[in-house]
Amino acid sequence: MRLSRYFLPVLKETPSEAQIVSHRYMLRAGMIKQSSAGIYSWLPLGFKVLRKIENIVHEEQIRAGHIPMQMPTIQSADLWRESGRYDAYGEEMLRIKDRHDRDMLFTPTAEELITDVFRSHVNSYKDLPLTMYQIQWKFRDERRPRFGVMRGREFYMKDGYNFDLTKEDALHAYNRHLVSYLRTYERMGLQAIPMRADGGPIGGDYTHEFLVLAETGESEVFYDSAVTDLTFGDREIDYDSVEQCQGVLEEFTSRYARTDETHDEALFNEIPEERRRTARGIEVGQIFYFGTKYSESMNASVQGPDGKNTPVHMGSHGIGVSRLLGAIIEASHDDKGIIWPEGVTPFHVGIVNLKQGDEDADAACDALYKSFAALGLEALYDDRKERAGGKFATMDLIGLPWRITVGPRGLKNGVVELTSRRTGESEEMPPEAAVAKIAEIYANHRVVGM
Ligand code: 5CA
Predict the structure, then answer these.
(1) pLDDT digits (tens, 9 = 90+) for 418-438
(2) Best probe residue, ligand 1, of 323, 324, 328 (max atoms within 8 Å of C-beta)
(3) According to the model, what pLDDT value does residue 446 have?
(4) 218 lines ligand 1 (CB under 6 A)
(5) pLDDT at residue 143, rounded to an integer
(6) pLDDT digit string (tens) for 120-129?
(7) Is the CB of 286 under 6 A from ligand 1?
(8) pLDDT band per the 50, 70, 90 thresholds, residue 404
(9) Given pLDDT bands bounded at 50, 70 and 90, which one contains residue 85?
(10) Is the CB of 333 under 6 A from ligand 1?
(11) What percent of the chain clears pLDDT 70, i.e. is strictly above it?
């Protein structure tokens, strides 16, 4: 993309309404624009990162054997009356009437709808296990929408639902989700720690939240510092293996790590004092096993091997896709701007032309731009007639992890400059070497964009 033809409305001033760094940088980098409280337009740069995050979530869900689908945002109240949640959900639910005066609502989550899909089409245990998911906009009329995309009213969520014959099978689905989430967050450059949590309006007491540690997080958390030493890495997991998934769950959840809702001071004090931590975290996902709560109230059952009808065991599993942008920025920035991890960066590399209009510099930048395109890598080429300082400030703010600087002086010696946004270190090399190095860096981060 040539910056002169892109839409990147960067702000010079720090917006006064933004209290935390991710919100400030998302506004300043022209990623989002507030439309009303807790509701945002996703401008091109923000939309691009949202899509990359969404694509990672899809890839990891599909790898775990889960099936993508899509349900409507506007739903009839009738289903929610069946489950008893139409009244129970309270003021967070946005209620709407259609022209026939029928009660509708904007989906805050989708247990009812998926259960209705299931009961209409599945009758036998032979069709189980089954896990389907969607990535869809949700609406919750939060009392205090704040911190930009962190606590929106409209937000983008991956919500997945498993249907199983037995509790054991459903717990395997739970564990499988835990494993797939660990992989998902690590691919985004995040450490998200599974913590014992509370079921809230979704229900069930078998639930973990995934938390990214950050001072600006809304949740108070308590944990044994040993949990921060764990990484999933690139180990291969057979998602069908009950033992392997159970093993990962035990490895990642056997140490103390809890949100304030489930915190137990006496248990916490059993941890050696030097490992006891109290901190704040951002909740980027939650998994639930709630048994037959919805299948019983909504009559979703299958015929078991013994010929008897039995309600299915269910769980639901969410990832805060739009919230993740904020969480990643909170975890990765400096005083100049965002520092995107390679896995989610909107463009793989920035090209800064120090002297737009100079024949050699223009030609070298064009050649670089074309080389990246041929490799399937996305470059953002700052081809504006602006001073170098302004171009660097924009690149630093929007946080592309790698920048190539091209100027007539370097070109006379056959070199351009390759700079890491994270370390600030620069290296001079021929343009072809810079392209090869960028290609090598991204060999392990193949995520398509838009
Ligand atoms: N049905 C279940 C799982 S599919 C569910 O709704 N779970 S949830 O309530 O925990 O939401 C899933 C994730 O969505 C949360 O972990 C959080 O990361 C994100 N989320 C929840 N509320 C908001 C909000 N107001 N703004 C942004 N993200 C949110």
Answers:
(1) 999 999 999 999 999 999 999
(2) 323
(3) 60
(4) no
(5) 95
(6) 999 999 999 9
(7) yes
(8) very high
(9) very high
(10) no
(11) 99
**Centre of ligand 1 from the C-alpha of residue 137, in Å:** 11
Please state, in angstroms and rounded to a whole number, the distance separating the CA atoms of residues 263 and 58: 33
CA of 322 to the centre of ligand 1 (A): 10
Confidence band, pLDDT 50/70/90 cuts, at residue 198 = confident
241 alpha carbon – ligand 1 mean position (Å)? 28
Q: What is the mean pLDDT of the chain?
A: 96
Residue ID of nearest Cα to ligand 1 atom 6: 109
CA of 150, closest atom in ligand 1:
27
- The Å distance, Cα 356 to ligand 1 centre, comes to 46
Question: Under CATH, what is the fold of the domain 347-443?
Answer: Rossmann fold (3.40.50)
User: Could you tell me the distance, in angstroms and rounded to a whole number, from the CA of residue 159 to the centre of ligand 1?
Assistant: 9
Instruction: Provide the pLDDT for residue 201.
Output: 75
Could you identify the atom of ligand 1 that is nearest to the CA of residue 110? 1
Q: Average the pLDDT over 374-381 and give the result.
A: 97
Q: What is the mean pLDDT of residues 39-65?
A: 98
Q: What is the pLDDT of residues 213-236, one digit of tens each?
A: 999 999 999 999 999 999 999 899
Q: Please name the fold of domain 3-337.
A: BirA Bifunctional Protein; domain 2 (3.30.930)
* Model confidence, pTM: 0.96
**Hey, where are the domains in the chain?**
3-337, 347-443
Ligand 1 pocket, 151 CB below 6 A?
yes
Verify whether ligand 1 is closer than 6 Å to residue 107 (CB atom). no
Confidence check: pLDDT of 168 > 60: yes
